[in-house]
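Entry 14. Structure prediction run on the chain below.
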Amino acid sequence: MLLVKDYPKAEPGRSPVRSISAKPDPEVDDLISGQAVPTPKSRARRKAQDTLAAAQAPVRAAPVAEAKPQAAPEVAPKAAPQAAPQAAPQAPNVAPISAKLREQDAEQLHSAKQKPVEAPVKSSTSRKADRSGLTKVFVLDTNVLMHDPSSLFRFEEHDVYLPMMTLEELDNHKKGMSEVARNARQVSRTLDALIANVDDDAIESGIPLSKLGNKDAKGRLLFQTRLTSAPLPEGLPEGKADNQILGVVRALEQQQAGRAIVLVSKDINMRIKARAIGLPAEDYFNDHVLEDSDLLYSGIVQLPDNFWDTHGKDVESWQENKNGNSATYYRVTGPLIPTLLANQFVYMEPKDGQSPLYAQVKQIDGKTAVLQTLRDYSHNKNNVWGITARNREQNFALNLLMNPECDFVTLLGQAGTGKTLLALAAGLAQVLETKLYNEIIVTRVTVPVGEDIGFLPGTEEEKMSPWMGAFDDNLEVLMKSDGDAGDWGRAATQDLIRSRIKIKSLNFMRGRTFVNKFLIIDEAQNLTPKQMKTLVTRAGPGTKILCLGNIAQIDTPYLTEGSSGLTYVVDRFKGWNHGGHVTLARGERSRLADHASDVL
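Output returned:
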């Protein structure tokens, strides 16, 4: 056995390591089950373990000397299956960890310093209520309702409480044509439908949230029907709306001592103030598609080197000519197939000199899949408007962009990976050469990075032109390919290209239908899921939609990597036969840009 001080320390971002012999702790189990990922052990925990090791040193001295050469760290079987089984018989020699130390360990894991910033962490009040099986009362801040109008029905069997100040702030934000104002009006209509034909006594006791047909919402809607006051720390202004909501939460805790009262707010400062005065507060993360952006679908899978050994039995192969391109198809069967998705890219690059495999999954039926080899766009003979793929991921992306059967394409990647250049080149080739589409429509969210410079003069296209600088830069690269045309020829080409590219604003997209268009949505990470739905549903017959973005650069308030509209569509469209996704990994802008992205 190892001494406690020699136990392996957890690393940031990795799963917690727990001893087999340790008695399970409910709070630590909550952390391991996905509520939060603990960071490295704190100084206090290491000090407590060293103290325990010193107290137990005489008991373990002899066994440690004998077992040390063949001992292995004790970990949970899922964390490290290669743990040596010889360590198990030595467990009785270790004195059991005291309950007091376990409480101290759990307390350190739940301390403010140990919680990751982005992980949706439940408050201790919520965790205790979950373990006891009791329903909770969630007090909603106004920003939650304005962020997600359907949030009233997202709390399952728990009750929802609306303070009077929340209703007052909803009324203040209902005017205007912004997304926030529309959400506020939608919440007001929903509340009006819930309280319709309800007696005053029913409002006092709670209105069933399933009244409008939302079967998942099994709790009740509670309103603040009387003035409640609870003492808050001196110095907090009493007239401020946030402080009044905090006072309501404190009063509810006093009135309903047996229930868990939890404040839900998208305002970080509001949650900090609540926790500072001892009130449980949580973020609203029901709209998060993924809790960890590293789990986002990449669209690419590397096959093992022994793929043909395990999947090559009874393999079928044939060739077909589609859209003027000849491709080879393989029908393979094996244990890896059920983990793949339609239109997912697979590749295998053997190190023993064998030819590599680059293919796309076209069809899956149980443990059998049909793989289609790709067209090599890295070769100059297959260039797209003078552009060739510089790496594997760009070749995958061009196969999606040039495939007329693929109606929806999402490209993720950091700055300089070639998202915009590839999209424009594919659009120009299919609009001006093959005439598959009649024009390119470009749009993006007008969210400034810095200080807003005010209103812009001109027409809709002139107002949008400053936001489209990235497309102008890429058009210059694409129009330089024809060097023998002369000045007049290049000017005519530029006029022709610009006549086929239309720049539109998102504000006027509702109600439109695009037919035979090549629609490019740039900076799509700044769109909410609702805005993304509005745009994607504009597609008419023969329209192809491209969503480009980098989820690490989100400028829209209240949007995170997990709740972005781009993350939403990538996760929902994966596996669709007419959609595809590629995450571009390597930057190809310049060596300066690549070095800056690594060191800055």
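Residues 12-45, 51-119 have pLDDT under 50 and may be disordered.
Filed with the rest of this week's runs.
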